[in-house]
Structures are given as structure tokens and as C-alpha cells.
Design a protein that fits this description.
Length: about 400
Amino acid sequence: MTESETMRLPDSFLVGASTAAHQIEGDNTTSDWWMFEQTRPERLQPSGRACDSLHRWEEDMDLVAAAGLNAYRFSVEWARIEPEPGAFSPAAIDHYRRMVAGAHERGIEPIVTLHHFTNPLWFQVGGGWLRDDATDLFGRYLEKVAPVLDEGVRTAVSINEPNMIAVMHRVISGEVDLTKGLGGGMPLPDPAVTDALIRVHDAAHEQLRAQHPDLAVGWSVANQNVQSVPGGEEAAAACSEAIEDVFLRAAIGDDFIAVQSYSRVVYGPDGIVEPAPEVPRTSNGWEYRPEALGEAVRHTAAIVPGVPILVTENGISTRDDAQRIAYTTGALRSLRACMDDGIDVRSYLHWSLLDNYEWGQWEPTFGLVAVDRDTFVRTPKPSLEWLGAVARSRELP
């Protein structure tokens, strides 16, 4: 096999971009995150109108299609669908149904996330995922979004990054204060929330496959890519088990597992080892490590062998778009190497399509497209055209 052949992506491989409703739509006033932003202004910047994608989603999809990308991952906002308990919005359901139809009209494969971090405020106030009726309430919501899925969705992510949801539970409850630093370790997920989310996902998978037999269902995990130096092996293994592996094993029997990877975490004898001063970092302080994607995919495949893998998030926060292209090149090469070794990987979706609201911050810029905060004018970056060329040619540079 020649070098050019090994660097070619399969014809069926999806290359696209990802977004999340709260981060781009704007004015998500009935969600718990909107409440967090309003009540904690000293820690969280407000999302406001975000990227105004609630009204500009067609423009966003036009950018995806014009670039030549063949997939777009977006999320359905539960808080819009059910702003009050038991009160469902036909207009919101139709909005997301039209988004799916709009993707197909543009030749884009829609990958729909059914829960991306945010809850309806009433659900959160009533106990969130620790409610006794959490599984039933999520199932009721899934029944109501059936018209969205029936518009032609073939791949659905039940819950985005449940491991981070379980971590954030400890932050929101005040058990962990991130403003005081990690203190040599990562906040680990709340065990009760972990168990609850796995139960909800299992029920959602069963329900969705019964109601939509042709739908592929899985969930996405925030792959921490936990590694160690001598003396840190035990701590690294414990961290990986609690923050990642238990969530990966929950995907055994699913139609796919979605990998979301950006960098790595390294443990030593005294806890987390920070990168050496000379090691490049991204603009949000993470170690610049394109090969982390391949490392995360290999770890995932080892934990859940035989489960197809989708990469649904990978990217870099940077103001230097040439660095973004270089990072993505390295990430895709590490992914192609995994595929050459027999790992079943079926997509690469870049995070993110737009420079968007990054959960309390506007400074990180992960997007392939810049967005003016005042006018909402979209300005594609060279990286969008570059990734589109990869999608069209199937060739890695």
C-alpha cells in the first residue's frame, strides 16, 4: 500500500463540523444554563443572543454545504421543546424538524444530539438527573421529538459528554470550586449522577431503537486521554476509570461510541503533571497535541472493542488559523493510522463550525467560521475551505 493510499479516507467517511444549541442559538431563557449565567456573573459571561443561530441556521448550513463538508452535528434543545413540565412547543419541534430537512436539502448528513449539557430549568430545580423520574421524563421528551428524527435522521447521540455532566454536578452543587484550581487532581464525576446517566442512556437507547428501527444510537464521551509518567500509573488508572472508562463501557451493545478529544492529562507521583514550559499550548491553556485524537480512539477501541467509533468533536482554540489547520492535519493523520490498524472509525466532525459561547466564556475560538458578536456576520476562515477540500477529495495533505 502506498503512502497516498494510506492517507486516503474511505468514500463513506463523514467529514463535517459540530455545534450545540445553547452555544449558538441565543436567548435560551428557559434552560438551567441561562439561569447559571444570570446568577453567577462574577464567574460566567452571559450567552445572550450567542451566534443568533436560532434564526440563522440556514446560513450556517449553507456554509457547511458550500465548503464541501458532508455532515453537520447539531443539538435539539430540550428547554425549548419542553419549557414547562408537560408543556411541549409544536413550534420548537417543527423548528428542529426543518433543520433536519434543511440538511438533507443541502446534501448534508444530519447527526442530531438529543441532550447537550443543558436542561430545562424546571427539571434542574426538581433535582436534575438525580430525580426519581429522570428516566421517565427524558423518555417523554424523546417521544415528543419523534417528528424530528423521522425527518430522516440516521444517527443520534443520546447524551453529550455524560462524564462532564457528572463532573459539573459537583461544581454546581458547590462541592468542587474550580476557581481554586485542581490542586494536583481532576474533579471526578459524581458517582450517583454517573449511575443515573447510564440508566437514562440505556433506557433511551432501547426506546429510540424501538421507535426508530433504522436509527443508530450511541453517546459521546469527553475523552481525557489520561497518561502517566513513572510514579503516576496508579493515579492515572483510577482517574481514567472514574472519568472515562465507566462511560465507555456503557456503550457496549450500542450502535456506536462517539469520541471527543482535544488534548491529554498526564499524572505523576504528585498528581497532574503540567506540560514543560517549552511545550506549545492552545489559547485556552491546553497542551497542543494533535496526536491526542488517535490516542483517544485507540483507548476507546480497547475498552469497547468492536463498537464502531464516530469522532464527533476535535479541534483547537487558537487565533492563528494556520495553527488550526496544522493541528487538524496531525489529528486526521493520527486517526487514519488507527483506521490502518483495523479500528472502525466512521467520521471526523470538527469542533466547532462557529466561534461560539464556550460555557461561560467567549474568549476561546474553536470555530472554522468567525462570528461578529454585534452583527452576527459570519466570516469563514481558511480552515473551513481546507477541511472542505479534505471532505471532497478524501485525501489527507
